[in-house]
């Protein structure tokens, strides 16, 4: 039986000003893995991160409506609309975080992060993601999932965090210490995030370093897929051309083509140079040869670490921490690697301990798998449009400013 998987994510592939598109790609790949029986995709929850929650929520709702995902066996935690399509649940946004980029913090102060739900049929804005997530983790040892004879082992529950870890931290806060011990027996947490050279963290952990600290200190089995592992893989324009997207194509991934091309152009200029600094030449990790002309598919790498662990090597355990500071979060935006435990760990106390897959065995093979998965989802629905994101908000300010200047000019003319 495939392990159950809950994905918490911050998709922005349908938003021009969103910071990346790999969350959307990971969702498509997860649907393909679910269809092939490699995972049992239980539910999806949405947080802010790459964009404010109102943008990521709108992105998820439109993507979900576009692919029209239906489950053959309903999940106890998933929410369904009248057509039998299972919907994402809404979690926390920037209001509960500390955005790790100064421009994002300024934007948040100007516009806030209150979602405007206009597509209720595609998403459930009334659902409490952290509550549903805590129920999902607790139910790993419930009688309903063990069976009437109480002899079968409960199905393993995995949680994959592809955005800031806020929703999961809140879910763990709802649990008693005893409940967390029960979760330890039957659940595993995977987090796309972390940095192993004591440099500045990735955006996920830096956006809510307090929640990252809480999860790392929890006595629950956990794996991080850090910057150093993800940067061993890159998607280039040659890979994008392999989809053969056209106006008539029914591949769902073609709806993300504009955003993927944007990422191929911008990431080598603005993000990848700092990423390469965290994989110094001659060190343990080697950056992808395509990192100077493509984007890192962070969340696809993390997803495949869950579904295809054999594609990774040098799995080791480390003791890490997130030092606190007097000035409050996000502090210096770092994670400290305190101790290399090695490939074996007794598992008696997971507080501060994480498992890490250090190496991608074969980048070419992993990219081929990614392309195969995201290119597996087809739909007859009309492609969703790209939304303007921040530009729409700033356009409103621009119009208001011009209107004010025009009225002021007219008043001055009248008073002459």
Q: Can you walk me through this structure?
A:
The chain is an alpha/beta fold. The chain folds into two domains: 4-385, Inosine-uridine Nucleoside N-ribohydrolase, Chain A (Alpha-Beta Complex); 387-416. 38% of the residues lie in helices and 15% in strands. The chain is built from 16 helices and 13 strands. The protein has helices at 22-35, 53-67, 102-111, 129-138, 143-146, 166-173, 177-186, 203-207, 209-216, 227-230, 237-241, 257-270, 272-277, 298-307, 363-374, 390-414; strands at 4-9, 40-46, 79-80, 86-87, 89-90, 157-161, 187-192, 222-225, 235-236, 294-295, 312-321, 336-342, 353-360. It has a six-stranded parallel sheet, sandwiched between helices. A three-stranded antiparallel sheet has the order 12-11-13. A hairpin with a 5-residue loop joins strand 3 and strand 4. Helix 1 runs parallel beside helix 14 (298-307). It starts with a strand and ends with a helix. Residues 117-122 and 143-151 have low confidence and may be disordered.
Ordered list of secondary-structure elements with their pairings:
Blueprint: E1 4-9, H1 22-35, E2 40-46, H2 53-67, E3 79-80, E4 86-87, E5 89-90, H3 102-111, H4 129-138, H5 143-146, E6 157-161, H6 166-173, H7 177-186, E7 187-192, H8 203-207, H9 209-216, E8 222-225, H10 227-230, E9 235-236, H11 237-241, H12 257-270, H13 272-277, E10 294-295, H14 298-307, E11 312-321, E12 336-342, E13 353-360, H15 363-374, H16 390-414
Helix pairs in contact: 1-14, 4-6, 6-9
Transmembrane segments: 388-409
Domain Inosine/uridine-preferring nucleoside hydrolase: 5-335
GO biological process, one term: purine nucleoside catabolic process
């Amino acid at each position: 039986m495939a392990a159950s998987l809950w994905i918490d994510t911050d998709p922005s592939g349908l938003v021009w000003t969103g910071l990346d598109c790999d969350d959307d790609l990971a969702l498509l790949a997860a649907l393909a893995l679910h269809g092939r029986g490699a995972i049992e995709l239980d539910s999806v929850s949405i947080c802010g991160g790459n964009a404010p929650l109102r943008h990521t929520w709108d992105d998820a709702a439109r993507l979900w409506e576009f692919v029209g995902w239906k489950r053959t066996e309903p999940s106890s935690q998933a929410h369904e609309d009248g057509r039998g399509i299972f919907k994402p649940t809404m979690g926390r946004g920037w209001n509960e975080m500390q955005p790790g980029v100064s421009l994002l913090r300024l934007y948040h102060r100007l516009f806030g992060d209150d979602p405007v739900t206009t597509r209720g049929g595609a998403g459930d804005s009334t659902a409490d993601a952290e509550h549903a997530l805590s129920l999902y983790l607790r139910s790993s040892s419930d009688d309903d999932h063990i069976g009437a004879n109480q002899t079968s082992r409960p199905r393993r529950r995995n949680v994959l965090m592809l955005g800031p870890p806020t929703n999961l931290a809140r879910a763990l806060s709802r649990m008693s210490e005893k409940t967390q011990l029960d979760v330890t027996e039957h659940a595993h947490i995977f987090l796309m995030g972390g940095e192993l050279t004591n440099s500045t963290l990735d955006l996920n952990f830096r956006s809510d370093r307090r929640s990252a600290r809480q999860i790392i200190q929890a006595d629950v089995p956990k794996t991080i897929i850090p910057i150093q592992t993800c940067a061993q893989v890159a998607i280039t324009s040659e890979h994008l051309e392999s989809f053969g997207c056209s106006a008539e194509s029914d591949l769902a991934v073609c709806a993300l083509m504009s955003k993927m091309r944007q990422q191929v152009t911008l990431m080598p200029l603005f993000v990848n140079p700092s990423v390469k600094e965290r994989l110094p030449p001659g060190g343990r990790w080697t950056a992808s040869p395509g990192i100077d002309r493509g984007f890192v598919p962070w969340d696809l790498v993390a997803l495949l670490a869950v579904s295809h662990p054999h594609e990774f090597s040098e799995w080791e355990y480390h003791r890490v921490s997130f030092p606190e500071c007097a000035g409050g979060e996000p502090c210096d935006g770092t994670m400290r690697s305190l101790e290399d435990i090695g490939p074996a760990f007794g598992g008696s106390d997971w507080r501060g301990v994480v498992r890490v897959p250090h190496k991608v065995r074969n980048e070419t093979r992993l990219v081929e798998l990614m392309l195969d998965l995201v290119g597996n989802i087809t739909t007859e629905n009309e492609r969703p449009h790209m939304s303007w994101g921040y530009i729409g908000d700033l356009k409103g300010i621009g119009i208001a400013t011009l209107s004010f200047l025009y009225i002021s000019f007219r008043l001055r003319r009248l008073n002459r």
